[in-house]
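Q: Second attempt. The first request was missing the SMILES, so the protein and NAP are both included now.
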Amino acid sequence: MKAIVHNTYGDADVLRLADVPTPTIKPDELLVRVRAAGVDRGAWHAMTGLPLAARLGFGPRRPRRQTPGLDLAGVVEATGSAVTGFKPGDEVFGAGSSSWAEYARAKPARLIHKPAHLSFEQAAAIPTSGATALRMLGPVTDKGRDVLVIGAGGGVGSFTVLLAKSRGDTVTAVCSTAKVAAVRGFGADRVIDYTREPITGSYDLVVDIAGNRPLAVLRSLLKPRGTLCIAGGEQGGRFFGGLERNLKALAVSPFIGHTLRAPIVLAGRDDLAALLTIPSPLERSYPLADAATAMHRLAAGRVAGKVVLTNA
Ligand SMILES: NC(=O)c1ccc[n+]([C@@H]2O[C@H](COP(=O)([O-])OP(=O)(O)OC[C@H]3O[C@@H](n4cnc5c(N)ncnc54)[C@H](OP(=O)(O)O)[C@@H]3O)[C@@H](O)[C@H]2O)c1
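A: Got both inputs this time. The predicted holo structure:
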């Protein structure tokens, strides 16, 4: 089968289309013929091997898993002997393994059937970014809040704005000039262009997705009992990325009036089902062979919402 591979770490130029063996599945796995695969920062981390600490998982010298990609939408090709609830021919979406390929393995706990109203491309945009946004916002009973979303123009940010609005939150969204129109389109009540004005206001919830601002700055934007939820932050040091800040947030949280959270999220079936209630913020799709172009755009911060890769 065709797949995108990289056998060394680097920028998107390390990605190439190659012929590789079709994966074999274990009894508890499905083989999915991938129609569309999601592109996100997780794939960027796996491609670059950054931050360096992540190479403990990805492979110290070169990537252990040479085909990137988690999120997928496609058609079940085969099911392992222990799999129930799915059969060949079913249209599914969710999180799999090495999804930038014609075929990928997936586990039933991280897949659901794709509803007919969603295209494969729209569905492949959802899993990891959508599930992360759900976790950032907390329980669905938390609604009607003043919410600030920093990094609102990207994958996780677009879902966070869409979901918060669907719950009745009042959303202030932070992004650069190029994404202001897109972020308004996701439904934000107020948009702050961080390249032109300071981030101001007082919020019940601050969702920090990008920029690596100091905890003291983020906490100054919270109401007295407010919550800060950190998704990531790409501008930390080369070894830990923004991770030191996340760990510090978790360490100080029990001792202060604010609640600071920094969850690590894997999309599960309940997340996928909950995400069917909002539109998919798909910006555009690229053929699988153009994965490097898609990744260059993501790395340069030019994607508003989500991009996906498609197989004919
Ligand atoms: N915790 C988890 O389990 C989990 C899961 C998924 C992702 N993540 C992390 O979440 C982060 C975002 O992922 P993503 O997929 O949403 O990435 P993305 O699609 O690349 O979006 C990142 C957004 O941040 C904005 N941004 C960059 N610098 C900024 C700054 N200084 N201030 C405000 N906004 C800024 C960028 O656009 P503009 O600057 O043009 O506005 C871009 O829209 C990454 O660090 C990723 O690793 C964590």
